[in-house]
Amino acid sequence: MAKVIIQFCSKCKWHNRAVWYLQEIMQTFGEGERFISEISIQPKIDEPGLFQVLVQADEGEPKIIYKRKFKKDNGPQDAPYYYDGFPDSKLLKTLIRDELFPSEKLGHVDGHATLTCEKCEKE
């Protein structure tokens, strides 16, 4: 059973953003072949500035698919899941689909244009 986990810094007041993403994910992945059985939001008080999305297929380990870059962090942030700012719902849905349901279409989210990931140059 596929799962999505949204973790965020509660001190940064990103509750509303996490709930909005949850709603968007539920609308897109709530039935049929691309069903996600669990979506959780996890406020964190011990990780300042954190905002990340993880997916878990079946009983495997959760995998980070999106993590917001820290502007004041001089450490390496070059993993493919690091992004500037917050993703729009289209990008987040595409990242989830690509990881959990790669052969499925997202309907209107896919649109007529090909979505290209600038970081990895994949379509």
TrEMBL record:
<dbReference type="Pfam" id="PF10262">
    <property type="entry name" value="Rdx"/>
</dbReference>
<dbReference type="InterPro" id="IPR011893">
    <property type="entry name" value="Selenoprotein_Rdx-typ"/>
</dbReference>
<dbReference type="InterPro" id="IPR036249">
    <property type="entry name" value="Thioredoxin-like_sf"/>
</dbReference>
<protein>
    <recommendedName>
        <fullName>Selenoprotein W</fullName>
    </recommendedName>
</protein>
<keyword id="KW-0676">Redox-active center</keyword>
